[in-house]
Amino acid sequence: MRFQEPVHMSDDHASPVWARTKRRSGGGAGGFVGLLVTLLALFGVLTAVLGIKERSLAEGGALLDGWITAGVDRARALAGQAPEAADAAVETAGEAAGATGEALESGAATAAQDLKQQ
User: Fold this and answer.
1) Whole-angstrom Cα distance, residue 114 to residue 4?
2) Cβ contacts of residue 9 below 8 Å, gap of 6+?
3) CA gap 75, 69 in Å, rounded
4) What would the pLDDT profile of 26-36 be if each residue is shown by its tens digit?
5) Could you tell me where the beta strands, DSSP code E, fall in 4-86?
6) Burial of 101 (C-beta count, 10 Å sphere; 0-12/13-18/19+)
7) How do residues 61-87 score in pLDDT, each as one tens digit?
8) Is 92 helix (H, G, I), strand (E, B) or coil?
9) Using alpha carbons only, what angle is made at residue 13 by residues 12 and 19, rounded to the nearest 5 degrees?
10) For residue 91, which phi and psi values (nearest 5 degrees)?
11) How far apart are CA 83 and CA 85, in angstroms?
């Protein structure tokens, strides 16, 4: 079947697939998946290197497990300190609010007395 007239592009001027020069992005998940794969690959390489260094994958894994445990314990210790610091900040803010309230009350009383005298 032959067309007597040349075929025209649509009104939105989208080029055909074979004429595109740039790659289209695959969405937002591509970067996250790449990061995840990279981290897993680094974890695997680190395990292999420690296995060679310790001459046993079990000992290398145990060393890596010790590092992870130390990191988790440190994070838990830091998280445990956060509520104590928040409580101290709340007490300080409460004291400052109380002092401000007392100052406003005394200022209001003084202003009321001044208005009565006028």
Assistant:
1) 99
2) 15
3) 10
4) 556 678 888 89
5) none
6) exposed
7) 788 888 888 888 888 887 777 667 777
8) helix
9) 140
10) -65, -45
11) 5
